[in-house]
Specification:
The complex is a heterodimer of chains A (293) and B (444).
Chain A: H1 9-38, E1 40-42, E2 49-51, H2 55-61, H3 64-96, H4 102-110, H5 117-127, H6 136-141, H7 152-181, H8 184-192, H9 197-226, H10 229-235, H11 247-257, H12 261-286
Antiparallel strand pairs in A: 1-2
Chain B: H1 2-14, E1 26-32, H2 36-52, E2 56-62, H3 66-78, E3 85-89, H4 93-99, H5 105-111, H6 123-129, E4 139-144, E5 146-151, H7 152-157, H8 167-179, E6 184-188, H9 192-203, H10 209-212, H11 227-240, E7 245-246, H12 255-260, E8 264-270, H13 274-281, E9 287-290, E10 306-312, H14 318-331, H15 334-343, H16 351-359, H17 372-378, H18 395-410, H19 416-437
Parallel strand pairs in B: 1-2, 1-3, 6-7, 6-8
Antiparallel strand pairs in B: 3-10, 4-10, 5-8, 5-9
Helix pairs in contact in B: 9-11, 15-16, 18-19
Classes of the chains: A mainly alpha (293), B alpha/beta (444).
């Protein structure tokens, strides 16, 4: 087998260098700092620090509030991923059927991805506002049925919906691309055999989409763990009573507001390990069950 | 040409390590946390300072929030790009003191031969920012204290006249207002600053041991054993009896706006909002402020200052310090104090500043009438060991523990006592971690 390669390794290094430099400056350097701080007690103004080994981690792992944060982060990740992917899949299946005006739908459905998380948070905060927003009609009909300001599970539901809404577009693009990559002849053949829309979706389109589905699953879950900050910050600030205090938000609260740099560093290390582990498990075990055609 | 000049100045500012601008002025930076209308008022002080002399140029940069101002300064400090002056909020005082990375203003002023009458500062304000020897570390600037805002029109409709002086009377007022058909008698948002800190000051009970942390780093919170518990239980009961409504930002309409729109009859807030409420109400109804109530049988004490002070950070040149000293001196003039207090609801921090305003009849007429009550509250008694202020590390986190537990209790997940016990236990862990971080050091 013939392979194309650079004879001069220096050229290769030179080409890769800018990218490596960016990754180093924005990922490896901060991560290594966080790793170091996680094992020390760091004074916020940089007046010195003390090596404490695993004390920060022991403190966190013995803290039931930390576990609560982990638990709700998992719930948030699973719920937003499931909701976003279901919505995206349904929308993509319809956009792919080339119903009337599908092109404008396609563009409209991609737009939300360009909206910044805090803007989404503010918009949804208004929609779900129990006394002034759209949801206030619900309260008008059934008094006290909806109150995300006081009720933790309502607040969580609200954050999940906003988070899922943000993710839908991304998944939609991938699903639509996946569907369009399925050869027309296949669908047409199925149609000639007498398979109707639903049957064609179930038996030919969905199975052929599984690789896309898997990639999206990984991306969505990872994203939900790390990218929920803007929404939580604008919608609930982690409340009420920590009901939406997701791991990323807790890191911000403890580190930047509370100036507990070491505790926050330890939390980011744990979050990083968790995301690495999730991705590893997904690629190692789930990927094997996915058929690539 | 003008553009070229402007960009040259901008460049000079950006590269102000040399600290000398194109015109030969000494340039230094000041980062402040106030935003909105209050932020504009800060910017005005800078413009006035720059116009008042031609030796120094202060560059004032808004950081959109107290927390951001401190966070950004820390990040910049660690990179050696920090401002000379930073506005830091009351609750961050202990953290800054322990850092040691500042130039005590008392020291700075005497180093540059600027004569300031430190005794002129109200003790209730100065003590909050002073060392154990009573020397000021930071310059008191925007100072406030909490007030009870009450709607006179609602009172008249319910046949009431006087605002309450005690919490017992307050409850009676709430009931009377409700009986008169007032939908929302009290807009409540859990706030440690008022419900816990200032409440404890006014009642002369401790928030934490070691005289609220002034006497050492090994302090512990004790508010789960004081009259604070009874007060929070009352709040919970009022919520259950529908005497108060929770109004927070997350709910769309916060307590201040609920009051300003004439929806709710009472709300507790900083005197700093006096101007904002005046603007929002815009003469739609009569209202006034009064001191926060105390429980019957307690002897009322002074409340303490809230707001922020100005810190001069270390690692700057003498020239920049000289400029900063001039700016602080400029702020301390009675004229500056008058302009500042007119544009915002904040109170003057010196006795001279207040006297001038009183003599000019400032407080006698609307819209400024009522602001003198804040001073009365701050100076009600001489500050004692328990009413000097609070000096506890990691206090922002401790505030958040309190808020979260109180929210849980208000939701009915646990009793107030259980909630406060948990909050105290968790906040104590924060304190001991803080003491560990600064092991071997002492509060200056």
């Amino acid at each position: 087998m013939r392979r194309a390669y650079f004879k001069n390794n220096w050229i290769a290094a030179l080409v890769v260098a800018p990218q490596l430099l960016i990754i180093f400056v924005f990922f490896y350097w901060p991560s290594s700092q966080a790793l170091y701080w996680a094992f020390t007690l760091e004074q916020p103004w940089g007046g010195g620090n003390e090596w404490v080994g695993f004390e920060n981690f022991a403190f966190l792992l013995a803290d039931d509030r930390y576990w609560q944060s982990v638990r709700i982060s998992v719930i948030y990740a699973l719920a937003t991923t499931a909701l976003a992917m279901c919505m995206a899949l349904i929308l993509a299946l319809f956009a792919d059927r080339q119903l009337r005006g599908y092109k404008s739908f396609r563009i409209g459905l991609i737009w939300p991805y360009a909206v910044a998380a805090p803007a989404i948070g503010l918009a949804f905060r208004f929609i779900f506002n129990p006394s002034a927003g759209v949801a206030s009609y619900l309260n008008y009909a059934f008094p006290d049925i909806w109150n995300p300001v006081m009720n933790g599970s309502h607040a969580m539901t609200m954050v999940v919906i906003a988070g899922a809404w943000k993710q839908v577009s991304y998944s939609f693009i991938f699903f639509l691309a996946g569907l369009q990559a399925i050869p027309r002849s296949l669908t047409e053949a199925a149609a000639m055999e007498g398979a109707r829309h639903l049957r064609r979706m179930r038996d030919s389109q969905l199975p052929l989409l599984t690789p896309t589905f898997f990639v999206l699953l990984v991306i969505n879950i990872t994203d939900s763990f790390t990218d929920s900050f803007g929404i939580v910050d604008t919608m609930t600030s982690g409340g009420p009573a920590r009901a939406t205090n997701l791991m990323v938000y807790k890191i911000y609260e403890d580190g930047f507001r509370g100036l507990d740099y070491s505790g926050a560093a330890a939390q980011s290390i744990i979050l990083m390990l968790l995301v690495i582990a999730l991705t590893f498990v997904q690629f190692r075990y789930i990927e094997r069950r996915v058929h690539y055609t | 040409m003008k553009l070229a000049y402007a960009s040259a100045t901008a460049l000079a500012v950006a590269l102000s390590t040399s600290a000398v601008s194109a015109e030969g002025k000494v340039t230094f930076e000041y980062w402040y946390g106030l935003s909105g209308q209050l932020g504009d008022a800060v910017q005005q002080t800078c413009d006035r300072f720059n116009a008042s002399q031609d030796q120094y140029e202060i560059v004032c940069i808004g950081q959109d929030g107290y927390a951001n101002a401190v966070q950004n300064s820390i990040a910049a400090f660690r990179a050696g790009q920090h401002p000379t002056v930073v506005q830091a909020y009351d609750a961050g005082t202990a953290d800054l003191m322990m850092s040691g990375e500042f130039y005590p203003v008392h020291q700075m002023m005497s180093d540059f031969g600027i004569d300031i009458d430190w005794d002129d500062y109200f003790p209730g304000i100065a003590n909050y920012y002073a060392s154990s020897k009573g020397e000021l570390f930071s310059m008191p600037f925007n100072s406030s204290t909490p007030m009870l805002y009450w709607n006179k029109a609602h009172y008249a409709a319910a046949g009431l006249e006087e605002p309450p002086a005690t919490w017992e009377e307050f409850e009676e007022r709430l009931k009377a207002l409700k009986a008169a058909g007032q939908e929302c008698a009290y807009a409540y948002a859990p706030a440690t600053w008022i419900d816990l800190e200032q409440f404890s000051m006014a009642h002369g009970v401790p928030v934490a041991s070691n005289n609220n942390g002034y006497d050492g780093l090994d302090s512990e919170y004790v508010y789960n054993t004081t009259i604070h518990v009874k007060h929070m239980e009352n709040i919970k009961r009022w919520l259950d009896e529908d005497l108060l409504e929770i109004r927070t930002n997350q709910g769309g309409l916060n307590a201040r706006d609920s009051f300003s729109q004439g929806e709710c009859s009472h709300y507790f807030g900083s005197i700093a909002s006096h101007q904002t409420v005046t603007n929002l109400v815009d003469g739609a109804f009569e209202w006034d402020v009064t001191m926060i109530p105390v429980y019957e049988g307690t002897e009322r004490q002074n409340t303490v200052v809230g707001g922020a002070s100005l810190w001069v950070l270390s690692g700057k040149s003498d020239e920049e310090y000289r400029g900063a000293a001039q700016y602080l001196k400029f702020l301390a003039t009675p004229e500056s104090e008058r302009i500042w207090s007119t544009n915002t609801g904040y109170i003057p921090v010196t006795k001279t500043g207040v006297n001038e305003l009183v003599e000019a009849g400032f407080y006698e007429e609307a819209p400024f009438k009522g602001r003198e009550v804040a001073l009365e509250s701050l100076t009600y008694t001489e500050p004692g060991p328990l009413t000097r202020g609070i000096r506890l590390g990691g206090f922002i986190q401790a505030r958040s523990e309190w808020s979260n537990e109180v929210q849980a209790a208000l939701q009915g997940e646990k009793t107030i006592q259980e909630a406060l016990d948990t909050a105290v236990e968790r906040s104590n862990a924060i304190l001991s971690k803080f003491a560990r971080t600064y092991r071997g050091k002492e509060l200056p």
